[in-house]
């Protein structure tokens, strides 16, 4: 799904995910269902449809919890990250902002509890977004800078580039212009 989003073709990504799920069992909740959920929510977020993203997560969450997939560290972090991103997208609107920020904080704490380099960086990235929405730009910049460094250490180049673009958007670009470097990296990866 991310490949199609990187190509700015969410419709094809959505079609591919639905076609893949159509040939899979509809009983239970398997890794394939989780991948379809990721695709659906990420596509909704990409399109700016935060409410749809949240509804998809809420509809699938009970089955996801019953499936025991959340016992797998990577999947738990990914699921919490997805939940936090949808909550943050909804928190960008003034209605129920405190509720959405609370839910984003909860998901971020679950990610931070994993305590490995890459999950710490994801938690920092989310912490930067939360701080920004709370109006604490200093904390947002600090969290995003720590996230970018953590993503560098984990060799997560796309995440590091995204964190640096957000840092620059907050006005913290230094002489090396991290936004330009991040954008150049994304262009070299054929990200539209």
What does this structure look like?
The chain is mainly alpha-helical and 192 residues long. It has helices at residues 2-6, 10-22, 31-46, 50-66, 73-91, 97-112, 117-133, 137-153, 157-169, 178-188. The chain has ten helices and no strands. The mean pLDDT is 91.
Ordered list of secondary-structure elements with their pairings:
Blueprint: H1 2-6, H2 10-22, H3 31-46, H4 50-66, H5 73-91, H6 97-112, H7 117-133, H8 137-153, H9 157-169, H10 178-188
Helix pairs in contact: 2-3, 3-4, 3-5, 4-5, 5-6, 5-7, 6-7, 7-8, 8-9, 9-10
Number of DSSP strand runs: 0
N-to-C CA distance: 14 Å
Poorly predicted runs of 5 or more residues: none
Tell me the fraction of residues in β-strands, as a range. under 5%
Mean pLDDT: 91
SS summary, helix count:
10
Shape: globular
Considering the chains and any ligands shown, give keywords for the structure.
10 helices, mainly alpha, 192 residues
Characterize this entry briefly.
With 192 residues, this protein is mainly alpha-helical. The chain is built from ten helices and no strands.
């Amino acid at each position: 799904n991310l490949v199609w989003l990187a190509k700015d073709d969410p419709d094809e990504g959505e079609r591919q995910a639905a076609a893949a799920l159509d040939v899979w069992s509809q009983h239970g909740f398997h890794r394939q269902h989780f991948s379809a959920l990721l695709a659906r929510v990420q596509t909704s977020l990409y399109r700016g449809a935060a409410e749809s993203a949240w509804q998809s997560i809420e509809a699938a969450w009970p089955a996801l919890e019953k499936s025991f997939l959340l016992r797998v560290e990577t999947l738990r972090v990914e699921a919490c990250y997805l939940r936090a991103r949808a909550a943050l997208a909804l928190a960008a609107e003034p209605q129920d902002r405190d509720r959405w920020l609370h839910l984003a904080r909860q998901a971020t704490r679950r990610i931070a509890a994993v305590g490995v380099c890459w999950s710490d960086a994801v938690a920092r990235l989310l912490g930067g977004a939360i701080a920004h929405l709370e109006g604490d730009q200093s904390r947002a910049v600090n969290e995003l800078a720590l996230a970018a460094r953590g993503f560098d250490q984990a060799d997560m180049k796309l995440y590091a580039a995204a964190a640096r673009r957000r840092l620059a958007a907050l006005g913290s670009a230094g002489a090396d212009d991290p936004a330009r470097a991040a954008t150049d990296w994304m262009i070299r990866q054929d990200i539209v």
